[in-house]
Amino acid sequence: MKVLRTIEETRKASRAAGSRGARVGLVPTMGALHEGHLSLIRAAKAQSDVIAASIFVNPTQFGPNEDFTRYPRDLDRDLALLEREGVDFIFVPSVEEMYPQPSNTWVTVEGLSERLCGKSRPGHFRGVATVVAKLFNVVSPHLAFFGQKDAAQVAIIRRMVRDLNLQVQIEVCPIVREPDGLALSSRNAYLDAQQRKDALVLFRALSRVQELFEKGERGSAALIGAAKAEFQRIPAVRLDYFEIVDPDDLTTVSAINQRTLVAVAAFVGSTRLIDNLLLEP
Ligand code: AMP
């Protein structure tokens, strides 16, 4: 596995693969890898000839009071995991390599970037769209793999690719969970034993919604009410949002008549966790 730190060497590696006619699959990550990330690598492996990944804790998607500096980083462990999965090259740029100073150009997917996490994390999706556009420009992948775990991110990247006519196929992989239902996240490492138990309320609330939906409930208000009741039983967890939205444009829907996204974000102590569920009538 080649470990590449500069844009130039990464372009070279990717171009060499492209000129051999190989399809390059890219898996962008922020590192602190877990089975969720590895599921994306395996999907990339199944669908591409050359597997590229990136590890970059992107400062522009963190707010001023968020966890950029304490975000878990363990490059040696990550590289060993990626090597074992058969990744061909990994792009590990520095902040200076990715962001020339000053940087004045941003990608904003208007109308979507302000919804869900964008409401409580202003600027977050601008940072995400910008860095993903930059990674696409550096690697020129034929395919790029993202997790359904970040459902709003998926909607925003799909829209960006469509609006900017980017030549990349976006593939979305299912959420990988712990045996008890907690969605895997690099931020789960912040949780102490009690918080780890409390964090299950996100999955419980989503499961309750799924259960009511399967019994025939279609009204968003009733489903959200039932989910919020689950949160009220765990006062240590502060709900940020629980929303039922269109998975493509992220606008709220009052009733579930087609494929619909149920999305939640909550603070467990100071750790912000997200999770979601897709419902198909
Ligand atoms: P991150 O390193 O958190 O930016 O995530 C990198 C990629 O892994 C994103 O496309 C995420 O959606 C995806 N991902 C993170 N957690 C999971 C999970 N539990 N299941 C599936 N994909 C995930």
Give a quick precis of the structure.
Helices cover 38% and strands 20% of the residues. By secondary structure, it is α/β, with parallel strands linked by helices. The chain binds adenosine monophosphate.
Keywords:
3-stranded antiparallel beta sheet; alpha/beta; binds adenosine monophosphate; 2 domains; 38% helix; Pantoate--beta-alanine Ligase, Chain: A,domain 2; 6-stranded parallel beta sheet; Rossmann fold; 281 residues
Helix fraction, binned, reads 25-40%
- Main beta sheet strand tally, sense and closure: 6 strands, parallel
Helix-strand category: alpha/beta
CATH architecture of the largest domain: 3-Layer(aba) Sandwich
Residue runs with pLDDT of under 50 for 5 or more positions: none
Provide the gyration radius in Å: 19 Å
- SSE order, as H and E? EHEHEHEHHHEHEHHHEEE
> Could you state the CATH homologous superfamily of the largest domain?
HUPs
Task: Describe the global form.
Answer: globular
**What is the rounded distance between the termini?**
44 Å
Report the bound ligands by name, code or SMILES.
Answer: adenosine monophosphate
Classify the fold: give the CATH topology of the largest domain.
Answer: Rossmann fold
